[in-house]
Specification:
The protein is an alpha+beta fold. It is built from 7 helices and 14 strands.
């Protein structure tokens, strides 16, 4: 007896059978996943056919419980391919001038079209509240594409301008503090960059007129504390705007607090 439409089997190394489902649409062969039974695999195929042949929309996918077998991610892939005539392996749905990457039904991530190629080839994952992709074998936080570091704190170091923390379009993200230990502040009504370093509590390194100079001051403070015997792996700042000569001049001239210079264990 032949298999039901859209179903084929493979035998795993342990000898068990896995039921695979797939569909061909617009001359594209699309895998729909693996299932525990032939009936489930066939149901996934029928649900995929209902999408490609009907008027089921992305809004329906978000709010409907109609489908029992076909994963939401595959629903998005098929809907985008049907509506926009472009196939992506990741759950992307194209909108006008931007796209939505559906991490799940409740997590629609908005991105600029400039990021389309990257996220069509990189799957976004979530762990401990962080969103990351696997890139060259490393876990890369998606915020790094905006110059935001893992140690950065939302609302302090960067903000989402429209208040939507799922909107990752470039114009919606403002980086306030791009260096470790550096915070934009005011002192006696004058804008300054406050530098703090943590070792058995927070120590103020100083206040500086530019963000880059403040970053150099943090590095100098970290070096001084290590000279004093502090065994801590400080996160150093790399200042892209300075070449090696400019950095050396800034490092030599920048002043750090007496508490750091005279620190004792």
């Amino acid at each position: 007896m032949g298999r039901k439409p859209g179903v084929y089997t493979i035998t795993k190394k342990d000898g068990t059978i896995s039921y695979r489902s797939s569909i061909t649409y617009n001359n594209k062969h699309i895998s729909l996943g693996s299932y525990a039974s032939e009936d489930l695999a066939h149901l996934a195929y029928k649900e995929a056919s209902a999408i490609t042949e009907g008027n089921f929309t992305i809004e329906d996918a978000l709010y409907s419980r109609k489908f029992k077998a076909l994963p939401f991610e595959k629903q998005v892939v098929l809907l985008n391919f049907r509506d926009c005539r472009i196939y992506f392996k990741t759950p992307i749905y194209l909108r006008q001038n931007y796209f939505v990457y559906y991490l799940d039904k409740k997590t629609p991530l908005k991105f600029a079209i400039d990021d389309l190629f990257y996220y069509s080839t990189h799957k976004i994952m979530r762990r401990g509240g962080h969103l990351f992709v696997s890139d060259f074998g490393m876990q890369v936080n998606i915020l790094s594409r905006y110059g935001i570091h893992n140690f950065s704190v939302p609302e302090r170091d960067y903000i989402f301008i429209n208040g939507d923390s799922l909107d990752f379009r470039y114009e919606n993200i403002e980086v306030i503090n791009k260096y470790h230990g550096v915070m934009k502040s005011t002192h006696k009504g004058v804008p300054v960059y406050l530098v703090k370093i943590h070792v058995n509590g927070d120590f103020i390194v100083g206040r500086y007129p530019t963000e880059d100079l403040a970053a150099v001051a943090y590095n100098k403070a970290a070096d001084k504390l290590k000279e004093k015997g502090i065994e801590k792996e400080f996160l150093y700042n790399y200042i892209y705007s300075m070449d090696s000569k400019e950095y050396a001049q800034a490092y030599a001239s920048v002043k750090i607090s007496k508490k750091i210079r005279n620190y004792e264990l």
